[in-house]
Design a protein that fits this description.
With about 300 residues, this protein is of the alpha/beta class. The protein folds into 2 domains: about 5-105, Up-down Bundle (Four Helix Bundle (Hemerythrin (Met), subunit A)), CATH 1.20.120.420; about 110-310, Rossmann fold, CATH 3.40.50. Helix content is about 45%, strand content about 15%. It is built from 11 helices and 10 strands. A 7-stranded mixed beta sheet has the order 3-2-1-4-7-9-10, sandwiched between helices. A 3-stranded antiparallel beta sheet has the order 5-6-8, with helices on one face. Helix 1 runs antiparallel to helix 2 (about 20-40), helix 2 runs antiparallel to helix 5 and helix 5 packs across helix 6 (about 130-140). The structure holds ribulose-1,5-diphosphate.
C-alpha cells in the first residue's frame, strides 16, 4: 500500500471506529502524518504545503467531536522551514514528540488520579477511556483493593472493552446496562470517565450518557472525576465556538430488519453529550488535578492560545 492509501486507510479506520477513543485517534493521526510525510516526494514547498493541508483535512474530517484530533494534527503539522527536506524533518519530529508526550501524559494522569482512589473503593466508569483506565489500573498496581462497575455503553458497547481490560489486570469488574447507573450509584465511591473535549468553561464532552452519570453522582454526593490530557482541551472554544456533537448512523442502534419493520420510526444516535462544569469535581490532567474553572489556563499555558489573540 502506498503512503497516501495508508493515510486514507487510517482515516477510514477512525471513521468506522476500528481505531477509537480520543487519545488513540490523535496518536494514529500523528503517526499517519509522519509516515505520509516520510514518503512524500514533491518538487516545491508550495506543493508540499498543499499535500499537508489535504492530508490534515482528510484526517480531521473523520470524527468531529474529539478535539484531540485537530489538536494532534495542528501540533504535528506546525513547520517553519520553506525547505521541503527540513519541513519534512519538522513534521516527523513533531509527530514523534506528540506521541511520546501523549504516552507520558497517560502515565502522569495515572499517578495523579490514583491518589484520589482509596483502598476499598468501588469505581464506576463509562465507555472505554484509556486515561480513566490508567488511573484505575495505577491505583490497583499500588496495591489498593478496588473494584469497578463498568457501564455497557450502548450502542457500541465499549463497556465490554473496558471490562476485558480490567479483568486482564485482575480487577474485579461488574458490567451493568446504562440505565442501571443510578440504581448502582449508592455502592460507588468515585466515578471516573475520560474526555473527548473540555471546553473553556470546563464543560466536559464525552460519550453519550456521561452527563446522566454525572447527575446521578451529584445527587448521591459521589465524586465525579474526568481524566483528560491537556491536548483534550478545546482552544476554539475561547473563540466562542461550540463543540460539534457527532451524530452516528442509526444502524448502530437498530438492525436493518427492525428498522424495516418500523419505517416511520425516527431514531437518533448522538455519540457524545455535554456535562456542565458544576457536576465535575476534578479534571485529572498530566499537569495536575485541576477544577473545571482552570480550563482557560490550561488552554493558554499548554496549548498556547489566548483570548487576546482573537481579532
Ligand atoms: C470514546 C469516549 C472516551 C474518550 C476518552 O468514544 O468517549 O471516553 O474518547 O478516551 P468513542 P481516551 O468510542 O466513540 O471513540 O481516554 O482513551 O482518550
Amino acid at each position: 500500500m502506498d503512503h497516501l492509501s495508508q493515510l486514507k486507510d487510517t482515516a477510514d479506520k477512525i471513521t468506522s471506529m476500528e481505531i477509537r477513543g480520543a487519545g488513540r485517534i490523535a496518536k494514529a493521526a500523528a503517526l499517519a502524518l509522519r509516515d505520509y510525510v516520510e514518503s512524500l516526494e514533491v518538487g516545491s514547498i508550495g506543493e508540499f504545503n498543499r499535500h499537508i493541508e489535504n492530508a490534515a483535512k482528510l484526517l480531521v474530517d473523520t470524527r468531529p467531536t474529539a478535539v484531540s484530533l485537530p489538536n494532534a494534527i495542528r501540533l504535528t503539522t506546525q513547520y517553519t522551514s520553506s525547505d521541503v527536506y527540513e519541513a519534512k524533518e519538522e513534521i516527523i519530529n513533531n509527530a514523534e514528540r506528540f506521541i511520546r508526550q501523549a504516552n507520558d501524559a497517560l502515565r502522569k494522569i495515572g499517578e495523579i488520579g490514583a491518589r484520589r482512589i482509596s483502598d476499598g473503593d468501588v469505581i464506576m466508569t463509562h465507555c472505554n477511556s484509556n486515561a480513566a483506565l490508567f488511573v484505575i489500573t495505577t491505583a490497583f498496581e499500588q496495591g489498593k483493593d478496588i473494584s469497578v462497575i463498568a457501564t455497557e455503553t450502548r450502542p457500541r458497547r465499549q463497556g465490554l472493552l473496558t471490562s476485558k481490560h480490567l479483568l486482564d489486570y485482575g480487577i474485579p469488574t461488574t458490567l451493568i446496562v446504562d440505565s442501571a447507573m443510578r440504581y448502582c450509584m449508592k455502592k460507588v465511591d468515585t466515578v471516573i470517565v475520560g474526555a473527548d473535549a473540555i471546553a473553556v468553561n470546563g464543560a466536559l464532552v464525552n460519550k453519550i450518557g456521561t452527563s446522566q452519570l454525572a447527575l446521578a453522582a451529584h445527587e448521591a454526593r459521589t465524586n465525579f472525576l474526568t481524566a483528560a490530557e491537556t491536548y483534550k482541551f478545546s482552544p476554539n472554544t475561547i473563540h466562542g465556538e461550540f463543540i460539534e456533537i457527532e451524530q452516528r448512523s442509526i444502524d448502530e442502534v437498530l438492525d436493518r430488519e427492525t428498522l424495516a419493520d418500523l419505517p416511520e420510526l425516527n431514531v437518533l444516535n448522538p455519540a457524545f453529550d455535554i456535562t456542565p462544569p458544576k457536576y465535575i469535581d476534578l479534571i485529572i490532567t498530566d499537569v495536575g488535578a485541576v477544577p473545571p474553572g482552570m480550563a482557560y489556563t490550561i488552554i493558554k499555558d499548554h496549548l498556547g492560545w489566548e483570548v487576546s489573540e482573537i481579532v
